Amino acid sequence: MSSIIELIMDEPSQLKCLLVNTLNTSTAKCNFTQNIADCGYDGIIYDFTRMVYCDFGDQYRAVSLVVLFGILLFLFLSMGVVADEFLCPALLTISKTLRLPDNIAGVTFLAFGNGAPDIFSSISGVTQSKPQLIFSGLLGAGIFVTTVVVGSVLLTGQFEVMQRPLMRDIAFYIGATFMVWFII
Questions:
Q1: Which of 36, 84, 92, 126 is most buried per CB count within 10 Å?
Q2: Domain Sodium/calcium exchanger membrane region, which positions (predicted)?
Q3: Which residue has the higher pLDDT, 95 or 2?
């Protein structure tokens, strides 16, 4: 405990927010989260760290976590309602206007849903001058799609994989990843 206090006095910018759990009192935890840069509030929506450690305290930590889980559930339900009420009818109108088959319209919707978070996280990384956010988000998404999605399709599908195009795509992805890694 005394070594943490010494670190706060000497190098508060070097401390990690995870160390808050080593403190004993709720006042010390609240002061720690308010004064350490790693626990800082980025000003986007609400300071949830302050809510957990300062507003509710140690006695009602479970209540704060239930509130946070409720907020998360509300956000997922809202996203589903928005997709059902607005995105699907717009996609249906676009596909009827362009005379697209249902499978092409579905793949387009899937590609939009898969790529939109990557685009918005990249824009956020550019506006906040955080290139590590851009690189890690895009690389993580690419690796997830090429490993988990392709792997699950290969395991559940009943088809023969054409090896030459698959190897071409894998080689290009690996080469592009190393090139981006080298440039950044």
A1: 36
A2: 71-181
A3: 95
What value does the mean pLDDT take over residues 158-165? 79
Q: What is the pLDDT of residues 128-157, one digit of tens each?
A: 887 777 777 778 878 887 788 778 877 887
* pLDDT classification of 70: cutoffs 50, 70, 90: very high
Instruction: Calculate helix-pair angle for 163-183, 131-144, nearest 10 degrees.
Output: 170
Could you tell me where the DSSP H helices lie in the chain?
2-10, 26-35, 48-50, 61-82, 88-97, 102-127, 131-144, 150-156, 163-183
Q: 124 and 142 in one domain?
A: no
CA distance linking residue 111 with residue 109, whole number of Å? 5
119 and 76 housed in the same domain: yes
Same domain, 172 and 111: no
Give the number of other Cβ atoms within 10 Å of residue 106's Cβ.
13
